[in-house]
Structures are given as structure tokens and as C-alpha cells.
Amino acid sequence: MATRTPRDSPRVRTRATTGDDLDLFVTTVHQAFGAFPETPADSPGRWWSALELDRGILAHTTSEPTEPTGPADHGEPADHGGRPVGTTASYTFDLTLPGPQHPTPDTGPENPLPTISVAGVTSVGVLPTHRRQGVLTAMMRHQLTDLRERGEPLAVLLASEATIYGRFGYGPATHTTQITVPRHRNALAAPRAHTLVPPTPESRETKADNGTVEIVHRDTCGDILETLYDQYRRHQPGALSRPHHWWARRAGRPPISCAPRYIALHRDHTGTPDGYASYTLDQGTLTVDETITTTTSALTALHHFTLNHDLTQQTVLKHVPRNHPLRTQLSDTRAAQVTNDTDWLWVRILDIPRALTTRGWGSTDADLVLDVHDPFLHEHTRHHLHTHNGHATCEPTDRDPDLTLDIRDLGSLYLSGTTPSTLIHAGHIHPHHPEAAALADAVFDTGQPPHCLHWF
Ligand SMILES: CC(=O)SCCNC(=O)CCNC(=O)[C@H](O)C(C)(C)COP(=O)(O)OP(=O)(O)OC[C@H]1O[C@@H](n2cnc3c(N)ncnc32)[C@H](O)[C@@H]1OP(=O)(O)O
Predict the structure, then answer these.
(1) CB 162 within 8 Å of CB 32
(2) What per-residue string of b and e applies to 296-311 under the rule 16 or more CB within 10 Å gives b?
(3) pLDDT tens track for 404-432
(4) How large is the ipTM?
(5) Which structural domains are found in the chain, ordered by start?
(6) Exposed e or buried b for every residue in 395-421, given b needs 16+ CB within 10 A?
(7) Is ligand 1 within 6 A of the CB of residue 59?
(8) Pocket probe mutation, ligand 1, options 57, 118, 131, max atoms within 8 Å of Cβ
């Protein structure tokens, strides 16, 4: 598909990539970021080894006669020697969604949460010589139009800067932080729950960790990490799947990539792996890339391990949620220094009814009318959301709205990482009556905070 975008940028032409474009794509995106690609370009271990080139876009400028480009025209050569000046691509992932707050019998809490297919937008770059001339705008329009044509309901991305993507309909939907614990303040409090309820076989299981922690080199346990991550992400709203070819090609960042790492692997009392922490130790700082667990006892055991390693002055846990349990597990609850609190996954909804009916909802049965403006795609739609037992129907309507909002704000609400009342108080969402904020909060809240730690 090739798209001319005269409205946004008369001199930009965008085209879909093919498998033959890998070198061109990799070279161009590195130039945009001021970086140098490692060679050879097609070997495993590079982040771009997971690129899906049937989903990429290259932007070219053209020297064809055009209309004046206005103030953004800085007199750059129109035709960059035929070479591309901009890139973007998207991966195919599954995104785990909030489930119903009161699950129906066939979707009990032990069962996986709903998931939805998403386009993970990546490698967005424009050459420094061609910025602020509408190249990104042209690529975003091509990409969102193409994803719509493919029937994809949602796009997600990690934004290099928070000021770029709102105009294209993306809203920040999950957040992440980093926790640093000094070695001398690392004591964990004894869990209190078992002192409050009569012991049962199950509670004895969680009270005392009967499992083991083993240190494994990353190169020898990829299959185990892949399996554990997949189990974890199906129960964590906001988490993305990591397709098998990422692990096979060692794409992305540690612990998927080839970067050397040790893995603290936890096994339960039967010897079954139920969690891992990927880490490095350098100059007294033990840095944990990620701790992935499927049980509470594995999480606690791995906290004991990573906080008590010899030859450390501090432990740093990267990419943890704001409500991470470690902060309350520490005896000294002020010991956790929380830094790098920032947005992580941004959500762009392309198919509102499908997006809203796939996720689960709060226990309040309700009717909520959402009046949604999508300025970038020139759309204005109104939706009647009817929730019952944690599930929803979503139909077009001309009823009076409860809320009027921008598509970017619906993206921020989608995973329930931000409440409607927060965006109402911020002045971004308009409530049409005094009860609208409380009603919307109750409908969106499922009590399952989202978190995403996958880098792409
Ligand atoms: C998912 C990811 O890959 S995130 C990575 C994003 N890429 C980077 O950070 C690499 C370095 N930066 C770049 O390559 C470019 O500056 C880009 C891609 C961010 C922007 O590309 P451009 O072609 O310059 O954007 P374009 O000209 O279409 O600008 C569209 C609008 O966004 C605004 N804009 C673009 N970049 C920025 C920015 N970094 N900060 C604030 N506003 C921006 C422009 O001012 C313009 O606003 P307007 O519509 O009000 O006039």
C-alpha cells in the first residue's frame, strides 16, 4: 500500500516494507536515533531480528511538484536521493485485559484473563534533517489506516517522549517505577496473614516457602523463562505476550536478549519452576531486570534472594508497578526509594465496540453513554455501554451522553490504570451530570491494576 498525504505533508510518500527492506529499514531507523547498527544485520540477538516486515512503513520525500509546505518547510532537499527519511513498524502481540470483577462460573479467578490482539508500534524515527515537516504524521496516518483495514482493534507503543503521541489518539495506560533498597535496610517483615486466620493446608503452603532457589546462567534456561513469562502474562492485565520467535532469536532486552545474565530460578516443593529473577551484579549494585512469578511464595523467596546477595550495597528492581508488594513487605517501609515513575504502555483504540466488549468490567451493572471524539481520524461516535455481571455490550446510540471524551483519554482508561474521575478532575473528560464520575469509576474498576514490563 502506498499513501499520499497531501493534507498533512505534500512532499511525503509512505510505502509498506517488504522482506527486502530489512537493511534499509535498520540503517534508516538507526540514523534517526543517532545510533550505529551492529553487523551483520540479520543475525539473532538484535532487537530488529523480531521485526515483521509485512507490517513496516518507510517514508520518502518526493521532488514532484507540490503545493507550498508552509512554515514547516525549512528548505530541505525534497528528494533524499531516493532513500527513506522515516520508519515505523508494528509487532503482533496479545494484550491481557482486566477481567470481570465477579467472574461467571466459566471464567473463575484461576482461569486466564481476556486478551486482545494488538499492534505493538515500534521503530518510529524521522531523520534529523527532515523533522517537523509532517513525516511522522504521514506515517501515523498510513499505519492507523492500515491497521484498521487489517481489522486490528488496538495499537500500543512505548513513547520516547510524552509529548509526541497524544495527537495521534494514544493515551498513557500503564505506569512503571524503579525501587532501590539499601542493603542495611533490607529486612522483610514476617507475613501477618497466617497469624489472623486458622491455618489450613493451603495457608501453611504460603506461610513457609518449601521451594528452592537455584542460580542458572541465562543461556541454559530460555525455555523455562519463556514458559513462566507466558503463564504470568495471562494473569496480569496490561501484560503483553512475548512471541516464541522473540525468545528463539534473542530479540529485545534482557532476559530475552543475548546480554549475559544470571537467573535466580525458584521451584516449588514439587520441583516445578514458579518464578525467576534476571539480574546482574556490578560494583555493589544488584540490578534486577524483572521478577516474574506465578505464586506469592516464589515472589517473596526471590525478594529474599535479591535483597540479600553478598557483596552488594543496594538492590535495584526495575520495571515494577506503583503498587508493588515489596514496599509493604519491608520491615522499614520507608526503605524502598521509588524513582523513575513514568508512563509505559500507551493505548490507541481503533475499534471501540470490540475493545470495550472484550475486556471485563466492575461488578456494578450500569448503562454508560460515551461520546468519543477522534480528531486525528476525523471521527465522532457515541456508544451505549451496558455492563452486566462484569461483561458488556456496546452499541451505537443517540442517547444523551454521560461522558464526552477524546479517544486518547479512552485509551488511558482502557486498562483501568487511570480512573475516569482523575481525568474529569484534570479537565480532560467532560461529565454531563453530577453522578457521571462515580458511575464511570465503578464501571471501569475491576480491582486489577494493570502492569506491563515488556520492551519493544
Ligand atoms: C514507539 C516509538 O518508536 S517511540 C520513538 C520516537 N522516535 C524518536 O524519539 C526518535 C527521534 N525523533 C524523531 O525521529 C522525530 O522527531 C519524531 C518521530 C519524534 C517526530 O517526527 P516529525 O516528522 O518531526 O513529526 P511531524 O513533523 O509529523 O510532527 C507532527 C506534530 O508533532 C509535533 N512533534 C513531533 N515531535 C515532537 C516531539 N519530540 N516533541 C513534541 N512535539 C513533537 C510537531 O511539532 C507537530 O506538531 P503540530 O501538528 O502541532 O505541528
Answers:
(1) no
(2) bbbbbbbbebbbeeee
(3) 999 999 999 999 999 999 999 999 999 99
(4) 0.97
(5) 2-174 (3.40.630.30), 176-342 (3.40.630.30), 359-444 (3.30.1050.10)
(6) eebeeebbbbbbbbbbbbbbbbbbbbb
(7) no
(8) 131
